[in-house]
Amino acid sequence: MSNSDSPRPSDSSSRSVRSKWLRRGAELLFFILLFSALSHWLSRHMLDSGSNAPSTRLPALYNRAATLADNPTVNLTGNLTWPATHERTLVYFFAPWCSICRVSMPGLNLLGNDDLRIVTVALDWETREEVETFVSSVGFRGEVLLGNATTAQQYQVQGYPSYYVMDSNGRILHQDKGLSTPPGLWLRTQL
């Protein structure tokens, strides 16, 4: 069989495949734009990117006091560093009754490294035991601070989970609220 005898795809089937891929690309672009718009709308009342994180001293769940301030960050042993030893800090606000927090918080265990510090802050809780039970049930292994209504007001937290990504000087780089996957959170810490 010569090359001229081999079957060739018809022009109409090539156009059909190309049209199918263009349509899928347009759908993907639509969903990315929709997600971006929704994310922006949800975070519209949070602290602005570029502003400094409020300085707040909070008790840690496991009997260590820690500080979220303009410059220092908290490491998992409760020590403060000045300036921050991590390039970025993810501060994740949650409530023990929040079902979305229950789904997303375990993924935080996958994110921490030498360049990224993860600090979680419990809000809207009634007892320390309630927070301990929640943290234990989701398997979170990092530092948990016990926030209060003042903390929620300072960070303008109006829903759960809410989170901020800050640089080593406490400047807010990104803010968002709602469900996010570990890859989504990781991506936000890289932008």
From TrEMBL:
Residues 47-191 form the Thioredoxin domain. The keyword Transferase does not apply. CDD domains: TlpA_like_family. The chain crosses the membrane at residues 21-42. It comes from the Bacteria. Keywords: Membrane, Transmembrane, Transmembrane helix. This is TlpA family protein disulfide reductase. It comes from Thalassolituus pacificus. The lineage of its organism: Bacteria, Pseudomonadati, Pseudomonadota, Gammaproteobacteria, Oceanospirillales.
